[in-house]
Automatic annotation (TrEMBL):
Keywords (A to Z) from UniProt: Isomerase, Peroxisome
InterPro entries: ClpP/crotonase-like_dom_sf (IPR029045), ECH/Chromodomain_protein (IPR051053), Enoyl-CoA_hydra/iso (IPR001753)
Organism: Mesorhizobium qingshengii
Name listed for the protein in its UniProt record: Enoyl-CoA hydratase-related protein
Keyword Isomerase (UniProt): yes
Subcellular location: Peroxisome
Keyword Isomerase: yes
Coiled coil stretches, renumbered: none
SUPFAM superfamilies: ClpP/crotonase (SSF52096)
Length: 249
């Protein structure tokens, strides 16, 4: 049963929910495919000028679906879906805003680095435990995180696995604004309304100039995915992931 909220176009703003199709706050292969399809279509749709990403109530996204990491028969399709989404985010030509109310973990956090603005509630947290799992960062965050957080901030965040509170995330530059819980989506939509009133060509050209070389990001995505795939073939990493999956069950 599909309980995933469908993308909703509101006054040139496409509101997209980050979750699995069955309503869990995680991304599985079908969710990656669905998000990539949504972004591909939004890129070509002149009615869409801004995309706003949101999570489910009380949680932005808890990361990838561990069961797919542990099933080698699913790796090929999973890797293809993940690569497509990350490349699509890296090259997406229109502004992306995110409203985070709750936890943003793993890929639920790394996709935020592709957003032009992240608006969060004060109770939100941000964590990327890839190294703890025996994995490497994804979504070209090995480039984007040092750019946004500075090298020292990125090292602490990714290598130590520090959990960032909203205030810490804002101080480092991951979060642009903090608003009271319950008003995060409206705040993001308010910023989106400001953007859709701008001259379209000038807005997109300016954003493109600020973004710079997206080809470099796509090359890094491929490199990260290759290392990620190698890690999923390592027995020690798989045993670690199995232990974590049992604890999470």
């Amino acid at each position: 049963m599909n309980t995933h909220p469908q993308p909703e176009l509101r006054n040139h703003t496409l509101v997209v929910t980050v979750s699995s199709n069955d309503g869990r706050p995680v991304l599985d292969r079908r969710a990656y495919e669905s998000l990539a399809k949504t972004f591909h279509e939004a890129a070509d749709n002149e009615e869409v000028r801004v995309v706003v990403l949101r999570g489910l109530a009380g949680c932005f996204c808890l990361g990838g679906d561990f069961s797919e990491f542990l099933d080698a028969t699913k790796h090929q399709k999973l890797i293809a879906a993940v690569t497509d989404l990350f490349r699509t985010l890296a090259t997406f030509p229109k502004p992306i805003l995110a409203c985070v109310d709750g936890d943003a973990v793993g890929v639920g956090c790394t996709i935020l680095f592709h957003c032009d603005m992240v608006i969060a509630s004060s109770q939100s947290t941000f964590r990327v435990p890839f190294v703890d799992f025996g994995l490497v960062p994804d979504a070209a965050t090995s480039i984007l995180a040092p750019q946004k957080l500075g090298y020292a901030g990125a090292f602490r965040f990714f290598c130590l696995g520090d959990t960032l509170r909203a205030e810490d995330a804002r101080a480092l530059g991951l979060v642009a604004e903090i608003v009271p819980g319950g008003s995060v989506e409206e705040a993001a939509l308010g910023r989106a309304r400001q953007l859709v009133k701008k001259p379209v060509a000038a807005l997109l050209q300016t954003r493109g100039l600020l973004k710079g070389n997206t080809g470099e990001l796509c090359e890094r995505i491929d490199q990260e995915i290759s290392l990620f795939q190698q890690a999923l073939q390592d027995d020690t990493t798989l045993r670690r992931l199995q232990r974590i999956a049992r604890l999470a069950a």
